[in-house]
Amino acid sequence: MKKSLSGITCLLTIGLLFTYIGFQMGAPEMLNTIMRTAHDLLLNTVFYLMGICVITGAIGKLFVEFGVTDLLEKMLRPMMRPLFNLPGVASLGAVMTFLSDNPAIISLSKDRRFSSYFKKYQFISLTNFGTAFGMGLIVIIFMIGHGYFVEPLLGLAGAFIGCIISTRLMQHFVIKACPQYETEQVTVVETVAEEQEETETKSLFLRILNSLLDGGRTGVDVGIAIIPGVLIISTFVMILTFGPGAGGTYTGKAYEGIELLPLLANKIDWLFRIVFGFTDPHQVAFPITALGAVGAALSLVPNFVAQGWVDGNAIAVFTAIGMCWSGYLSTHTAMLDSLGYRELTSKAIIAHTFGGLGAGISAHWLYLLFAWLS
Fold first, then answer.
1. Per-residue pLDDT reduced to its tens digit, 270-319
2. Which residues contact 205 (CB under 8 A, 6 or more apart)?
3. Model-level pTM greater than 0.85?
4. What DSSP element (H or E) covers 193?
5. Sequence-ordered list of residues with C-beta below 8 angstroms from that of 176, at least 6 positions apart, any chain
6. How far apart are CA 352 and CA 358, in angstroms?
7. Cβ(242)–Cβ(24) under 8 Å?
């Protein structure tokens, strides 16, 4: 009976949604717009993002091979305890997720030596801590590629502040729900098979070549992984964000829509101006999309730039929210399940929601300070 009700609810919801969109656009135009938008996103956005993923993946692997990651970890280690209330080794997780994606913190936490430094409440908060830096290098390079340099760095600072909020708040929630975790050490952790060290000495050329190719291959995997989010989520969000074609008519071309999100955003436009400094109601589509997938959110930026809907403040806020949230609604459940604390998923999501908001607000005020000083 429950399955039947669930199926009926699903059909009614989808039917009402597409009926609403089709009533305004026309059924043929709606279907053509959906397919052409998805096709254009695949060719002009996904492959561009995949190119960035391949390059950053190669750079990240090169950093690991030649000790740059260890150097960064040593530089960041002193600030872990006072800012995040985490052991110094947690800085390695920040570096790894910044160079790759959220799940890197999980593979790292499976290492018994790494996890032995943590109390349980700290260990659980690694989900929030790692997510706040996920795909950071990709987000920043993507924004720089669209002509902005200082703004993405301000966004990085905002994401850093958001990470502090999210991590500390998650630790508070965990201790309140499970007080014993404040003193219990992490002991039972599944250990990943350690890679055997190669005894043969490789030449410098081979080390560089293998690092670049292996990292690039990882970038291809990330690029493929973002395809569903970009094509499904972004297409849907764009239909709800953009308006009709030239002359106010629907022609079935890519990137036409019903402008529902800007209409709703206009109702509380004053709030977004105060909180994030948004100057256009279309900008609200980015943080909404970043909830599910940061790759999908990034795909909105080229069209926003082309339409003149973004400014330096928006780029700073987009970078901060894109990094800090980085699709946490679609990853936190799997990440906490992997750690063995699935029951705390709702607390992690609540904490990270506030963290992302804090990141966006911080980036906005940092941009205002930068604009005032310059």
1. 888 999 999 998 899 999 888 877 888 898 899 899 889 999 999 999 99
2. none
3. no
4. none
5. none
6. 9
7. no
- Residue 21's closest CA among 34, 11, 9, 8? 34
CA separation, residue 149 to residues 55, 164, 208, 316, 348 (Å): 18, 24, 28, 10, 32
CA pair distance 283, 274, nearest whole angstrom: 14
For residue 360, which of 310, 327, 319 has the smallest C-alpha distance?
A: 319
Measuring CA to CA, how many Å separate 75 from each of 79, 88, 96? 9, 10, 14
Q: Tell me the two tokens of residue 278.
A: 């948004």
pLDDT tens digits for 127-140?
899 889 888 888 99
Report the alpha-carbon distance of residue 172 to residue 156 in Å, rounded. Answer: 24
In the three-class reduction of DSSP (H, G, I as helix; E, B as strand; rest coil), residue 214 is classed as helix
Question: 19-68 pLDDT, tens per residue?
Answer: 999 999 999 999 999 999 999 888 887 888 788 778 877 877 787 788 77
Instruction: Tell me the backbone φ, ψ of residue 306, rounded to 5 degrees.
Output: -65, -35
Phi, psi of 253 (to 5 degrees): -75, 165
371 burial (CB, 10 Å; 0-12 / 13-18 / 19+) is exposed
Distance, CA of 268 to CA of 220 (rounded, Å): 40
**Residue matched to tokens 């987000």:** 139
Is 368 exposed, middle or buried, given 0-12, 13-18 or 19+ CB atoms closer than 10 A?
Answer: middle
Residue 170's closest CA among 350, 361, 364? Answer: 350
Non-local CB neighbours of 255 within 8 Å, separated by 6+ positions? 33, 37, 40, 238, 242, 303
Q: Which amino acid is at 302?
A: P
* Sequence-distant (≥ 6) Cβ neighbours of residue 254 within 8 angstroms: 33, 36, 37, 39, 40
Residues 6+ apart with CB under 8 A from 367: 151, 154, 277, 312, 313, 316, 317
Q: Which of 192, 51, 196, 182 is nearest to 113 (CA)?
A: 192
Rg (CA), the chain: 22
Q: What's the rounded Cα separation, in Å, for the pair 138 and 257?
A: 28
Q: What angle do CA 310, 251, 31 make, to 5 degrees?
A: 90
